[in-house]
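[recover] target loaded
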């Protein structure tokens, strides 16, 4: 056991003023996570500290924060890997509700723009099942695990610079999973939608922060390049 200093950004838009930083000393134990330390602060030092979480297992995606300057899930980030001084701030590119809780409307509005749901082809059940040996499942498998935590969206400088005019890595990754699924009835429409405006794949500046922060190991920057490739192939009349 040892003491660590957890410095947390505090801000309440209803009170106004500027964000400030407050440091709490927390007794850390082996395997304790940053989320555990925030709970200890609420239980023992300041019950007004606000943050969001649900599953505490790295599955729901609700505990995304900036921890020592990098986007991470608080419930999957162990204190012993961070040193004695930890700085916790809310995610970027979203409005702060209070302290570490952010309003994810901007993120989910982008998500909605790609029509993130499967639409079966009409009048055919030809592709309703993907045969295990076909290799078609592997094309999208690695992209399916997104938990919509928003960490890639908050890390993306193109999202910051374009101020809402680039839909961001997570939504484009989701769009790709459907474009690459031959059973989807909207895949051609999706491909055009995600590649014909600067909001979409061609707005990506391949900065790569999304790849660094994804807690599920998804590589949205790579996926976005695949959308561009498909669009070029389609434009040249090639199989895509
Ligand atoms: S609380 Fe669900 S991912 Fe962290």
């Amino acid at each position: 056991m040892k003491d660590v200093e957890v410095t947390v950004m505090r801000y309440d838009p209803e009170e106004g003023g500027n964000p400030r930083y407050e440091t709490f000393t927390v007794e850390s134990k082996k395997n304790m996570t940053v989320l555990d330390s925030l709970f200890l602060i609420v239980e023992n030092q300041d019950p007004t500290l606000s943050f969001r979480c649900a599953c505490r297992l790295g599955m729901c995606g609700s505990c995304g924060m900036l921890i020592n300057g990098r986007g991470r899930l608080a419930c999957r980030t162990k204190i012993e890997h961070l040193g004695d001084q930890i700085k916790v701030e809310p995610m970027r590119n979203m409005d702060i509700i209070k302290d570490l809780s952010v309003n994810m409307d901007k993120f989910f509005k982008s998500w909605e723009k790609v029509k993130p749901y499967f639409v079966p082809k009409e009048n055919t059940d030809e592709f309703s099942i993907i045969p295990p040996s076909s290799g078609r499942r592997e094309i999208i498998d690695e992209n399916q695990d997104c938990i919509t935590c928003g960490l890639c969206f908050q890390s993306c400088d193109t999202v910051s610079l374009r101020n809402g005019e680039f839909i961001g890595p997570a939504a484009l990754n989701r769009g790709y999973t459907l474009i690459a699924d031959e059973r989807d009835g909207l895949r051609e429409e999706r491909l055009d939608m995600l590649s014909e405006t600067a909001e979409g794949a061609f707005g990506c500046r391949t900065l790569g922060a999304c790849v660094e922060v994804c807690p599920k190991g998804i590589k949205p920057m790579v996926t976005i390049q695949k959308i561009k490739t498909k669009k070029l192939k389609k434009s040249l009349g090639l199989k895509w």
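[recover] notes: The pocket of FE2/S2 (inorganic) cluster is lined by residues 53-56, 58-63, 73, 75 (CB under 6 Å).
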